[in-house]
């Protein structure tokens, strides 16, 4: 008898949560307007092929104090409270994608949406990804699918704005992290 096993999502293990609470990249601990100025300086130095914002507040602040990111990933919540950012933001993007991603997980659907958004952004479109669930872990597929030197910008709750340049080393480190700190949610088809 043959079984096909599929995995449509992976879940972050508890020991991985502590690791992800440590800023990776440039942790900028300043008020929003000043933090975005630092991000702009980093962007000018790196000249990234793409700037990718993860989170509603990060997207709003970059858009307000600088320019629109090439890709923004939002979940219409800030600290688990609903926001109305999408109505303000959607009109400034060429394409909006929607996906499902439960808290603490990475679904194949969400991963694919981020990868598609990056592909579309590389062709010159600005893309908004709206997540039903939680967008926090979607920085991982953003790093793994974005071209090197891209800049991922995300918030570390009440602590810092983080600017994360994509490098080969970071990509390989994240692959190892996923292998050790995520569990596959496997079902039979």
Q: Which structural traits does this protein have?
A:
189 residues; alpha/beta; Pyruvate Kinase, Chain: A, domain 1; seven-stranded mixed sheet; three-stranded antiparallel sheet; 7 helices; 12 strands; 39% helix; disordered N terminus
Protein described:
It is a single chain. With 189 residues, this protein is of the alpha/beta class. The protein has a single domain, classed as Pyruvate Kinase, Chain: A, domain 1. Helices cover 39% and strands 31% of the residues. It contains seven helices and twelve strands. It has helices spanning 14-20, 32-46, 56-65, 85-90, 108-122, 139-145, 168-181, and strands spanning 5-12, 26-28, 51-54, 71-74, 77-78, 81-82, 95-101, 105-107, 127-133, 151-156, 160-165, 182-188. The protein has a seven-stranded mixed sheet, with helices on both faces. Strands 8-1-12 form a three-stranded antiparallel sheet. Helix 3 (56-65) links the parallel strand 3 and strand 4 (71-74). The protein is globular.
């Amino acid at each position: 008898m043959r079984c096909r096993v599929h995995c449509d999502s992976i879940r972050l293990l508890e020991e991985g949560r502590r690791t992800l609470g440590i800023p990776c990249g440039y942790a900028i601990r300043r008020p929003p307007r000043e933090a975005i100025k630092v991000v702009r300086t980093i962007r000018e130095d790196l000249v990234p092929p793409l700037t990718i914002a993860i989170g509603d507040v990060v997207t709003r602040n970059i858009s307000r104090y600088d320019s629109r990111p090439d890709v923004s990933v939002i979940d219409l919540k800030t600290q688990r409270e609903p926001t109305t950012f999408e109505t303000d933001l959607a009109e400034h993007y060429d394409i909006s994608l929607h996906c499902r991603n439960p808290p603490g997980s990475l679904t194949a659907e969400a991963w694919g949406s981020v990868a598609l958004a990056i592909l579309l952004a590389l062709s010159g479109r600005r893309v908004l990804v709206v997540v039903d669930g939680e967008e926090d872990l979607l920085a991982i597929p953003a790093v793994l699918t974005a071209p090197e030197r891209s800049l991922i910008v995300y918030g570390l709750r009440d602590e810092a704005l983080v600017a994360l340049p994509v490098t080969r080393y970071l990509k390989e480190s994240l692959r190892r992290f996923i292998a050790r700190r995520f569990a596959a949610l496997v079902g039979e088809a």
